[in-house]
Amino acid sequence: MHNAPPLLAILVLALTLSFVFGLAARLLRLPPLVGYLVAGALVGPHTPGFSADLGFTATLAEVGVGLLLFGVGLHFRAEDLLAVWRVALPGALAQVAIGGTLGGLAGIALLGLSGPGALAFGLALSIASTAVATRALEERGRLSGEAGRLALGWLVVQDLVVVLGLVLLPALASGSSEGLGLSMLRAVGELVAFMAVMLLAGRRVLPWALRRVARTGSRELFTLAVVVAALGVAFSATILFHVSFALGAFFAGMVLGESDLGHQAAAETVPLQRVFAAIFFFSVGMLLDPANLAAAPWASAAAVVVVLLGIGAATFALLLLLRVPPATAAVVAAAMAQIGEFSFVLAELAIGQGMLPAEVRGPILMGAFGTILLTPLTFRAFGWTAQGLAGQPHLSRWRESGRRPAPHAALPGLQGHAILVGYGRVGSTIAAALRRHNLPLVLVEEDRHVADRARADALPVIWGDAAREEVLNAARPRQAKLLILALPGAYEARQVMALVRAVNPTIEVAVRTHDDDEIAWLRQEGGVGLAVMGEREVALGMADFAMQRLGVPASTAQATVDVLRARMPGEAAA
């Protein structure tokens, strides 16, 4: 019997265990990544029994992070970064300073670290995991909205801090400041050079090359070309410009996403992103060392607290100070309240330079493992806090006092109209149907670029967050007849519906949903005329088409669709 190659054995084992434990976590109503972490811990080098090779898994995990960030970049634009830099740049720098200070003090008090060692320990506890944050936002449908843009801008600034940290730590370890300024200047120069190459040359070369491949008509070659573009640019960024692999992949996706090939490239890489993301979390679980945790239990517990306060709470507070709405600030803070891959890189460099003892691996790993496991609870906690703050008139007045003049004004003469919230693919289709029959409509849209596009289409538009009372009031909800919620996130839809119901209890609501639990909640809430779950309506529409094409009369086919819809669990329809 032939022995399986080590890489093949690790790949099969990681995927199998990730699936089994991810499924178990899902059945327990936990995120699948919790199962991935537990699966990795069971076969890690520090637990009894079978031990998987950590080196192979870590390499696969880095590929996963690269593909994940490439996919995020495909849905991101350079303008999105520029639009949030006034918040992300000062906010992220202040948050890293707060988190680094808290972590450094914990390291001095509980681990007896020196000044440079405390700095390294604090920095490792103040940098969020991009992979975890983007996955958490994606699962909640917030990656493409305002919260997603703020989080990505924040993460990019943190990544730049990591690049400077990788230059700074060896110089501090040597005890000499000679050449430190030059080294930092060189690091910044390399980063700027990479960004310039991607924005000036990459914008033209990558789309041009992929168009040539697409014209061959081979989907296999196109998929391969997309993966080569993602990993090739990321690897080149690391070798030539000393930029992190993840940041290189992100910029590759961003420049490619601006072309007309972006959507297809995203579709081709989604399955790979999901597979390798599972391996990433599996590899994090493999790092768990019970002996290190037992050797420094108080430091391990403190690391979790430092991350929750120094990243999560600090991010939330800073966003509020920067006049970001509480609901958006809560989502960003909850997604960021954890650490991961960059923290491990910084810690290993500091250990290799003699700045940190090997025992700090336990607290840093516990900071990562514990905060990732706590992510669902963190979202709930920050969500409750945001709900409490949203009702504070002093906070609302203070936030509005620093904003530019209101981007909306109440629209006079509205009566018996529909309020449409969201102008994405779903919302724009609904708007087109209503306008075709000259029905009264007012749109509320949070994204300024999308709002401008709708205004160019001659739609009455109110720009702003519909979950804010002052924005929603401009749409005259008291006089409205219908509320149409075309938002991708259930949490925001509930907020808007609650605000409208407070002033117009009899208004009828049509809402977009994503799962049975949400439909069941809407049914209990009452007053919802229609709750549409996309996948179901696609299936029913195709079934109706198939029946009619195969000879079933239209009225009979419609009756069958009605019966099927009524049998679906939790379906809400008037």
From TrEMBL:
Keyword Transmembrane helix set for record: yes
Alphabetical list of Pfam families matching this protein: Na_H_Exchanger, TrkA_N
Localization in the cell: Membrane
Segments crossing the lipid bilayer: 54-76, 88-112, 118-138, 150-173, 179-201, 221-251, 300-322, 328-351, 363-384
PROSITE patterns: RCK_N
Entry annotated with the keyword Membrane: yes
GO BP terms, alphabetized: potassium ion transport; proton transmembrane transport
Domain called RCK N-terminal: residue spans: 415-532
Family (UniProt): Belongs to the monovalent cation:proton antiporter 2 (CPA2) transporter (TC 2.A.37) family.
Name of the protein in question: RCK N-terminal domain-containing protein
Organism: Teichococcus deserti
